[in-house]
Amino acid sequence: MTSQEFREKAITLIDDLKAVCASYGLGNDGNEFKIITQVFLYKFLNDKFAHEVKRIEPKIAKAKSWEDELRKMPADDYEMLLLQLGASTARLKPEHFLSSLWGKQNDENFSALLDATLLDIAKLNTDIFSVKTNDGQMIILFDPVTQFVASKRDEFARAIINKLIPFSFERIFAEKFDFYATLFEYLIKDYNKDGGGKYAEYYTPHAVAKIMAACLVPKPVKNVTCYDPAAGSGTLLMNLAHAIGEDRCTLYTQDVSQKSSSLLRLNLILNGLVHSIPHVIQGNTILEPYHKEGSGLRRFDYIVSNPPFKLDFSDFRDQLDTKANKQRFFTGIPKVPNKDKDKMAIYLLFIQHIIASLSKKGKAAIVVPTGFITAQSGIEKGIREHLVENKMLAGVVSMPSNIFATTGTNVSILFLDATNQGDVILIDASNLGEKVKEGKNQKTLLSAADEEQIIRVFNAKEAVEDFSVVVSYADIAAKNSSLSAGQYFEVKVEHVEMTPEEFDKRLSDHQAKLKELFKDSRDLESKITTQLGKLNYE
After folding, report:
1. Is 342 helix (H, G, I), strand (E, B) or coil?
2. How open is the CA angle 353-357-362, to the nearest 5 degrees?
């Protein structure tokens, strides 16, 4: 099965599952989202298990029914087979097989059987697949899925299981394909469009994620640690891991949202990064950072992040303003405004946290509002001055407007490099891309050529007219630490040779044009005054 065929089948499966949910009153709400992702994962784990046991035991691969062959296996032999499975494969008992459930769908209380099966799989695989919270509690792999249905739960469970039977993912496990991207993107467009909350507000487009990863890892590396303190569903980390190699990196994350952490776990499973699940933490990174070494923060080789830009953190703002946090928040903590608390610039705390979490040879890429790179005062300027003084900048890429379909904020990517003592590359990519309509929103899509241009120019530190400029730390300091490429471009003055007569003629034409414009404006003003007079009279 090719990637495109998988994509089409995955979309069909999602549509079918959504249709079932809608039929039972769960259309377009958070419970539907949870059901679809968990049922999809159950299907995926079944097919992955089948793929792995067939690879280990040729007899099973040749059998007419691999499930029946395993059911006949003596208990000790079955346990030995499970021990041979890789860490990324869930351990399943014969009663957990999708075919076992399908064969019992006419049993009484079938919905309870489905829920019990999912919970049993979760408990059996707790050590491998559970996400931790700040205080050490375990969030297991599955929840009961039929609890969200008010009536006819057995019929709902049967309908769900029957949608999982028609095709298998077995043939595509060896391919490099971002399975989860299809599921996430296809789901999120409907939930965001239909008012499903702010969940997708900071979802990072794959073009941005690809550029960040390719600019961070231009050469092969191995045995490195990667971190995202506001990981969401993990789009940035997946791209970074693909650029490095899934077997050559370990991922560490934290995110305040339990929903995001569960989705990230699914992403790690689908992308062959199960070994990183123990480092997925659900909790408040700013208030209680989890990943530490001794009394300080753990330092990472690579950090990527698209943190929330504005968020009300007034409830715990004063808890951050302590002596212990002075080093982490070295330029300060935004004050609580009298109005619009939801516009507190929490991203400034994330940037400072990332700087404090970077190893001595570390690199980072952070999505920031473009206003950050030119702000003339405050915490923004203080952070930029720190980066210049400590020589830990790699560059900045200012992206086109509407690169995020769900927010109109212009964004730039801030690249850090703790080892860069040389020049800094600044890129203005704001004119790239094609404007398209996506629902009610306008979005800018970068072509593959656009992406490659940004990556090539950045990694080569190449100056391109009206696109990129290479500057020194001294140059940046002299410009108030501005990181906007446009402020360093040469100002061009067009020189045109002309005779005195030609100059007089051009000046006369301009004066005539101005008189005409003034006359038009007076005529328009007179018409408006007349119309207003009539309205007042009436």
Report:
1. helix
2. 130
Give this prediction's pTM: 0.84
Query: Which residues, 6 or more positions from 233, have their beta carbon under 8 angstroms from its beta carbon?
Result: 180, 184, 203, 260, 263, 264, 267
- List own/partner pairs for 12-20 with CB under 8 A and 24 or more apart: 13/40, 13/43, 13/163, 13/164, 13/167, 14/40, 14/183, 14/186, 14/187, 16/163, 17/160, 17/163, 18/190, 20/156, 20/159, 20/160, 20/163
Rounded mean pLDDT, 483-493: 82
Residue 189 confidence (pLDDT): 57
CA-CA distance, 41 to 290, in Å (whole number)? 27
Other CB atoms within a 10 A radius of the CB of residue 202 amount to 18
272-277 long-range Cβ contacts below 8 angstroms, 24+ apart: 272/88, 272/246, 273/238, 273/241, 273/246, 274/87, 274/88, 274/128, 274/129, 275/87, 275/88, 275/250, 276/250, 276/251, 276/252, 277/128, 277/129, 277/130, 277/131
Q: Which of 399, 394, 395, 416 is nearest to 350 (CA)?
A: 416
Dump pLDDT digits (tens) for 21-62.
Answer: 999 988 777 788 888 889 989 998 999 999 999 999 999 999
How is domain 3-177 classified at the CATH fold level? Ferritin (1.20.1260)
Q: Can you read off the two tokens belonging to residue 403?
A: 């690169």
Is the pLDDT at 199 greater than 50? The verdict is no
Alpha helix segments (H runs only) across 26-85? 30-56, 58-62, 66-71, 75-83
The dihedral through the CA atoms of 351, 357, 359, 360 has a sign that is positive
pLDDT of residue 27: 79
Task: Give the whole-angstrom CA distance, residue 260 versus residue 199.
Answer: 9
Confidence at residue 353, expressed as pLDDT on a 0 to 100 scale: 98
Q: How far apart are CA 82 and CA 69, in angstroms?
A: 14
Kindly state which CATH superfamily the domain 206-487 is placed in. Answer: Vaccinia Virus protein VP39 (3.40.50.150)
Looking only at the bridges linking them, the beta strands covering 411-417 and 393-398 are antiparallel
Domain positions in the chain are 3-177, 206-487, 496-538
- Give the containing element (helix H, strand E) for 441: strand 441-445
Contact between 354 and 364 under an 8 Å Cβ cutoff? The reply is yes
487 vs 204, residue with greater confidence: 487
Joined together, the tokens standing for residue 215 give 């600019």
Span of 6-20, 420-434, 453-467 with lowest mean pLDDT: 6-20
Asked whether the beta carbons of 441 and 403 are under 8 A apart, the reply is no
**300-305 vs 358-369, strand pairing mode:** parallel
| C-beta atoms surrounding 57 within 10 Å | 18
